[in-house]
Amino acid sequence: MAWVYLNGRFLPLEEACVPVTDRGFLFGDGVYEVIPAYGGRLFRWPHHLQRLQNSLDGIRLVNPLSDAQWRDMLEELLLRNRAQAGGDNDQAVYLQVTRGSAPKRDHCFPRDTVPTVYAVSNPIPPPDPAIARDGVAAVTLADSRWARCDIKAVTLLPNVLSRQQAVDAGASEAILIRDGLAIEGTSSNLFVVCDQRLCTPPKSAYMLPGITRDLVLELAARNGIACDETDIGASTLAQAGEIWITSSTREIVPVTRLDGQAVGTGAPGPLWRTMSELYRDYKAEVRAGRAH
Ligand SMILES: Cc1ncc(COP(=O)(O)O)c(C=O)c1O
After folding, report:
1. Which atom of ligand 1 is nearest to the CA of 186?
2. What's the topology of domain 129-287?
3. Which tens digits make up the pLDDT trace of 180-230?
4. Which segments of the chain belong to CATH 3.30.470.10?
5. Ligand 1 within 6 A of CB of 55
6. Could you give the residue range(s) of every CATH 3.20.10.10 domain in the chain?
7. Ligand 1 atom 5, closest CA
8. Among the residues of 9-137, which ranges form H helices?
């Protein structure tokens, strides 16, 4: 049985309900985070907490819990769901905060509402060996999202529609293009290898500042791998030797086909292999309690 946390209580998933007047349901008026935990230890916790705070600030919602309350609550949730997580106890936490419920539907902020706080954790499946062998396909699509993609808002309809369009085309991700520049995936950040250099688009309001992206940059810097935060034009993307997408749950995934054409040799590239090993070693440090 999966446990969830809802507004101060732990309860079985089947029993968790929010009112139909919740502004998350009516307006998508809320934010969320996804945080992996390896061996029961929250991965990059301070970074996720800071991004949650930035998202809450972005929608002008006061953080309903202190840092310690968030951590205690999530650690208890991970413990309660330990039995369903299997031997390695690797789980992904999803947490969501909405502006709560008000009796009357009105766009402007209601007074005196209490935010709705929800969290759930699910086992992280072991990596799919087919991805390391073959990589995945992606397509490019015009970015139809709003101008505050740096807020991790639950309002994800453009991301949902674009991802479905990618899946309908036989791909697993859409790389979104705005004003001729490749920005990120529908639920991932973007890296490319061009002329032996690793590049990723710079942070902006058009992109979610990914925690995995930042870790890849850190690992690159620590290991002497040159990496530029620079604009990536759609034509550069089309000529890249390697393309990767990164996210907390998918980690670092090699894109080996873009818009039906092979990327580089059409197989996962050597720099991807190196970075995946560095990332795997970092996770092992977290499991052992020597990194966070
Ligand atoms: C739009 C978008 N970009 C990037 C990411 C990757 O962020 P992170 O590495 O923090 O999971 C996500 C994650 O869900 C996302 O939704």
Report:
1. 1
2. D-amino Acid Aminotransferase; Chain A, domain 2 (3.20.10)
3. 999 999 999 999 999 889 999 999 999 999 999 999 999 999 999 999 999
4. 3-123
5. no
6. 129-287
7. 188
8. 23-27, 45-58, 67-80, 82-85, 129-134
Amino acid 10 reads F
Does the CB atom of residue 22 touch ligand 1 within 6 A?
A: no
The alpha carbon of residue 188 and the mean position of all alpha carbons in its chain are separated, in whole angstroms, by: 6
The answer to whether 73 and 79 have CB atoms below 8 angstroms apart is no
Residue 208 token pair:
């979610």
Structure tokens at 69: 């309350």
| CATH number of the domain located at residue range(s) 3-123 in this protein | 3.30.470.10
Return the structure tokens found at 109: 């902020």
Residue 155 CA to ligand 1 center (angstroms) comes to 14
Cα 195 to Cα 182, 227, 228, 267: the distances in Å are 18, 11, 12, 17
CA geometry: angle 172, 151, 191, nearest 5 deg: 40
> Cβ–Cβ contacts within 10 Å for residue 151, how many?
17
Cα(112) to ligand 1 centroid in Å equals 32
Q: Half-sphere exposure (CA, 13 Å, Cβ side) for 263?
A: 30
Is there a contact between 160 and 167 (Cβ–Cβ < 8 Å)?
no
Nearest CA residue ID for atom 16, ligand 1: 187
CB atoms within 10 A of CB 193: 22
283 catalytically annotated? no
Write down the residue that tokens 């819990």 correspond to.
65
27-63 pLDDT, tens digit each: 999 999 999 999 999 999 999 999 999 999 999 999 9
Closest ligand 1 atom to Cα of 48 = 10
Q: Is 172 in the pocket of ligand 1 (CB under 6 A)?
A: no
Ligand 1 centroid to residue 211 C-alpha, Å: 7
